[in-house]
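Usage

Read records sequentially. Each one opens with the input sequence:
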Amino acid sequence: MKIPQNDSKKEAPGDGRVAGPASRQTPDAMPGISGRADDSTALALTAPADCGGARLDHVLSGLLPQHSRNRLQGWIRDGRVQVDGKPVSEPKHKLRGGEAIRVEEAVDPLAAAAMAEDIPLAIVYEDEALIVIDKPAGLVVHPAAGNWSGTLLNALLHHAPQLSGVPRAGIVHRLDKDTSGLLVVAKTLAAQTDLVRQLQARTVKRDYQALARGVVERSGTVDAAIGRHPTQRTKMAVVLGGKPARTHYRIVEAFANCTLIECSLETGRTHQIRVHLEHIGHPLVGDPVYGRRLNRVPRGPAFDRQFLHARKLGLVHPVSGKHMVWKSPLPEDMEELLEKLRLDAYLEAEAAVDDEDFDDDHEVEIIYEYGDGDDD
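and closes with the structure output:
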């Protein structure tokens, strides 16, 4: 059964009950967040007449395509959905068709509490649905403990104030603080939901350039599940029972004690490239967390952060349906390091050639002396 979309009617603001899934980021730990969504909006919907036997979450997904099913399921479990005036807390609840449905949209507490800050953004592309940003190293994406301000989210709220009405200010994927490169942000709920679905379908193209320690002998694929480290809870690791994770990598340029590679993600797990490269014995140059104890692998050149840059991003535009691709050049500090490595390699090669020429072009007379050198 195909569930048709339905125009919803907005009612008066809700009664301030606890926010839905977005509020599960421990609101009490966030400055300025009370844990209640007093600015929530109620929507009045009608279940299609031909949806008899369909699940409530499936029907809502068709009526409210701007929201992901996970978000709608969370709202149902949090008591934000009523069917014919009665609260329903089970997403699998079956409908007869024609019921009156009331949905209280939850305000994202993180975006609501975050302050807009005038932080410069390197915007590669922007239209009514998307913003593509070239994130510099050192910029945190989301506010969290120790970084409640000065984040990409704060900058986005200043650049586009309407993002306060979009969960996580439209951010659909992350880059680590010290990872630079391309990141896409949705400007509307519909665009955000579409992009999340593309990420889930693994159709978003994300390529990174990385400098790995040691000599990587061949290109390949790492297919290893990632989860929380069993003893160091701030780290991720390859673990049994973790979430599926796959990284493809190919060699771009080899140096004496490190290798420039390009990594393509099929999945987007936390610290995925860093964990997978450590797993195969070639952690990132400059990574302060992963690979510190791999003493058998050359440490590579000195670098003050992990050498990882999101250089290419490709996706289907959520409004036009066109395939779009953006590229980002390496930051200056990374380019300078590569140039130094190339120069060192050139000088070493020149020195080796000079040694060979000396051996080939010069005859050396070897004189052996026996005794003390006195004439008989």
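Summary fields computed downstream for this record:
- Confidence is low (pLDDT under 50) at residues 1-38, 366-371.
- The CA atoms of residues 201 and 355 lie 56 Å apart.
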